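seq as requested:
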Amino acid sequence: MENTKKYIAEFIGTAVLVTFGCGTAVAVGCDAASGSGYLLTALAFGLVIVAMAYSIGNVSGCHINPAVSIAMLIRGKMSGKDFVGYVIAQCLGAIFGAFILWLIFGGDCGYGANGLYDGKIIGSLFIEVVLTFVFVLAVCGATSKIENSSVAGIVIGLSLTLVHILGIALTGTSVNPARSLGPALFAGGEALTSLWVFIVGPLLGGAIAGAVYAMLTSENKTSAKSKGKK
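struct tokens:
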């Protein structure tokens, strides 16, 4: 039952992320001619994380992103079973969020789907790896200590806002395979054919961030154990 609650929380959180984050992109017209649209969309994604962190964070940890979950898996913070359950819940939540956007905006709104930067696959993949690495590294750091719990949601939300400010003009900023999946399924066309880039890139970036953070903190853990033995 406890695991089921976690999965439900992840479903809700990811649905809210897509509804309000991608929905804001649709509402404000997120394009190069609307610089304020970039900032509003970036803030929307960041604020959703803050809101969800302080509402479902105590239930599931508020990953609402397979890239975050894979980092936690690599760091040994969750089991393989939970990882699969989280990812399924996140993807279903994102699809439901996109469905809500369909109900609100109709069938030809773009749904805030991601797109290749200048039509380049490798370049877009690289951008997503870098953006996701920075974001997930911040998540790992912010959630590494219990004493950070009161401000972790704000730090993570601001970090997501940061990567969106740069990334929106490039790929639309995925850094989250589930967030890309839902809108792409409804948008179809190029968004669907290039979807794999926004699944592989964020997962790779998240995995690298998890491994790097584990490496950076491994010496601290070893030192702490040595002191304990003395």
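The longest helix spans residues 197-229.
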